[in-house]
Design a protein that fits this description.
Residues about 325-335 have low confidence and may be disordered. It contains 17 helices and no strands. It has a single domain (about 10-315), classed as Up-down Bundle (Na+/H+ antiporter like fold). With about 325 residues, it is mainly alpha-helical.
Length: about 325
């Protein structure tokens, strides 16, 4: 029996279990010190594998749709931060100050890669452009995210110098990514034959970082400072933010005359925020005692975007596509 699209996926359930484990049995002492080293290695391995899996052919195939890519980048790194900043008088009273910092951090993150491409494929959108746009967003996030966080949060002691943060992220995330991509000709076949193992490595790396971050936060009293009402308010804030971005990207794509296939790509690539990039970046950008609270909005938004975009992708997929349009959609893309 197929699982309902409204139910959480297995990875989300693993995330919840990890948070529960960290809440009941947080890492401390020498174990916490060893865990910090392990998370650094795991995150570097994660981005090495993402670099190795990125196809250069897919980049070349999608890179020509520059108008589409500009719209996605604007949505990811301009629209989201503007909404998070402009709506502060409405959003902050619904949550605690720490959770609102997490919302601003969420707004500064790059887009997802895997889920955005999966939804574009499901909705019969422009897949090559989606691959290029989502991958470019990940790379741009290495520079844009720490700078945006510094701009949105001001001189936050928890974060430090944004320029130094760019250097740390470049060393821990971008360098392994580039090395992995350069080694792709040698290891791509190996990774493809062991796709299931690579998925386990991906997810295990994220779960390890989440456990470490929440362990620090729990020891510092996370759950005593986050009342149940704030969690309910956080759910509402994430829902409002996602609804606004989905509405604005859909409206903008149609006003600018993009094809339906490109509209789909803009909507799904421009409305996503990456848990895969966000959790490791928070581990680099913020002090250990605040990282847990900061990634909590991202974890909630992650599940919400999967459920909502699953319904939206199914609706797009049911549309009637003329035979000629279906044949040339992937090659033509935008209405130049």
């Amino acid at each position: 029996m197929a699982r309902s699209r409204f139910l959480p996926d297995n990875f989300t359930l693993y995330l919840v279990a990890t948070v529960v484990l960290a809440s009941l049995l947080p890492a401390s002492g020498r174990f916490a010190q060893g865990l910090e080293v392990a998370t650094t290695v795991a995150v570097s391995l994660l981005f090495f594998l993402h670099g190795a899996k990125l196809s250069r052919q897919a980049i070349v195939a999608g890179i020509g749709h520059w108008r589409l890519h500009l719209v996605v980048v604007a949505s990811t790194f301009l629209l989201f931060p503007l909404l998070g900043w402009a709506l502060r008088p409405v959003l902050e009273p619904l949550v605690t100050r720490e959770l609102y910092v997490g919302i601003l951090y969420l707004c500064a993150l790059p887009a997802t890669v895997q889920s955005a491409i999966a939804f574009v494929s499901m909705a019969r959108g422009n897949i090559p452009a989606a691959v290029c746009s989502a991958s470019a967003s990940t790379l741009l996030g290495v520079v844009f995210t720490p700078l945006l966080v510094g701009l949105l949060l001001g001189q936050s002691a928890a974060m430090g110098d944004p320029l130094q943060a760019v250097g740390r992220i470049g060393l821990q995330l971008l360098l392994p990514f580039v090395v992995g991509h350069l080694m792709r000709p040698l290891i791509a076949g190996f990774l493809q034959r062991r796709a299931a193992v690579m998925k386990v490595v991906d997810q295990s790396s994220i779960l390890l970082v989440v456990y470490a971050a929440f362990s620090h936060a729990v020891i510092d009293g996370l759950w005593s400072t986050v009342p149940p009402g704030a969690l309910a308010g956080l759910l509402l804030v994430c829902a409002v933010l996602l609804a606004l971005v989905l509405t604005l990207t859909t409206w903008g794509a149609r006003r600018m005359g993009f094809s339906k296939e490109d509209e789909i790509t803009i909507v799904f690539c421009g409305s996503k925020k990456s848990l895969v990039s966000g959790v490791p970046m928070a581990n680099v950008l913020f002090a250990a005692n605040v990282a847990g609270a900061i990634v909590l909005p991202l974890m909630l938004f992650h599940q919400l975007q999967l459920m909502v975009c699953g319904v939206l992708a199914a609706r797009y997929a049911r549309r009637v596509v003329p035979v000629l349009d279906a044949t040339v959609a992937g090659a033509v893309g935008t209405k130049a």
